[in-house]
Amino acid sequence: MIVLLALLTIAVYTDFEGASLGRIRRLAGDWLECAVAGETDHEGRNRQATWYYFRLEGAAGRLVTIDLVELAGEYNYKPNRGVIDDRTPPVYSYDRRTWRHLTGVEYDPSVPLLRLRIQPERSPVWIAHVPPYTTGDLARLLGELRGHPHFAERVIGTSAEGRELLLVTVTDPDARGDKPVVWLMARQHAWESPTSWVAEGALRFLLSDSSEAASIRRRTVFHVFPMVDPDGVVRGGVRFNVHGYDLNRNWDAIDPEKMPEIAAHRRAVLDWVDGGGRLDLFLTLHNTETAEYLEGPPDGAFRGLLERFHKLLVGRSSFEPTRPASLAPPSTDPARKGRMTVVQGLYRDRKIPAFLLEQRISFHPKLGRFPTVEDRLKFGEDLVRVLAEVVGAGPVPPRPQATR
Ligand SMILES: [Zn+2]
Questions:
Q1: What percent of the chain has pLDDT over 70?
Q2: What is the Å distance from ligand 1's center to 262 Cα?
Q3: Residue numbers in the chain where pLDDT is lower than 70
Q4: How far is the CA of 187 from the centre of ligand 1 (A)?
Q5: Domains recognised in the chain with CATH numbers
Q6: Ligand 1 mean position, distance from CA 192 (Å)
Q7: How far apart are the CA of 83 and the centre of ligand 1, in A?
Q8: Phi and psi of 56, rounded to 5°?
Q9: pLDDT of residue 330
Q10: How far away, in angstroms, is 60 Cα from ligand 1 center?
Q11: pTM of whole model > 0.90?
Q12: Residue 114's pLDDT is what?
């Protein structure tokens, strides 16, 4: 057990999976300054400070002020003030199942600093950047789904720290034929836990008892990479693997020692395609602070597919783009090796129609609230319906409506 600070009765703990916080200083009684630990890449560059997750004990009934500092960083080699501000208030929970957004946060860009005030009803209370999703959550989900006759899983490799990397496949094996194939990827970046909630929503719906899901399983194959960076998820990382490599860059610099996660996931996709498998659409799921958009492969031939996918997402899900659908450039930075994303890499390797979906964590006008865990699960369900239709499995018949 690591006690980072114990004064009077308030204590901050980071002794659990996914926890992260930097140095802590007491400014006065119940007023703490907490640095966000952040993370840099293998060259000490591109510092990102977009993850914190800690437990507060002994604070029930007390008004606690927490100043989050050391937010500044760098993105794609350009320095910035960081992206944590008053548009991205933390979430808190008393049981780590129900997460609520904290209201009334204050941001001071001159430091930069985000001030939180919380008067917890109970102790302990957990506080995080977004609702966490750990390897324990994934294990629990797979434990529930395992045994369904239309569920299969395979270990495709191990992470730098030796954790299993998984591929889950959902389809009805009794319905044979040349079915369209969709491939989903979640959690290339450890902090982006909402992508795991989306993947969970997708898998739960796909394997549900509904006739609609059964029909999709008969007509479509879904492959899912549920967690690309389990090491980062366990240690409370941000966006680099344990050796400092961004797992959504470096798809042109494959090194099985330094970035075994990229090597294993890439190999699984290429082996499938090289073995004659169809791959109609690959989609990697990501989060940003305030932007939401869909990006397609760097090839104008896929413009029609991109537009069809985009239109269905807008029409049938909570997706609310902040910019038009676009095709990716061939590389994020052609002058520098190690800057190719999975979208760019899979297109370069096998002309795979790979897409990237970014979803915001800030206030969502279409939902009318900050996105909740339930919103992410529901989006996963809607995404399955949209994907099944986009890859040509035909429109999914609407659910039977209750008559009255
Ligand atoms: Zn990301």
A1: 95
A2: 14
A3: 1-8, 393-404
A4: 8
A5: 3-128 (2.60.40.3120), 135-393 (3.40.630.10)
A6: 6
A7: 13
A8: -110, 130
A9: 87
A10: 35
A11: yes
A12: 98
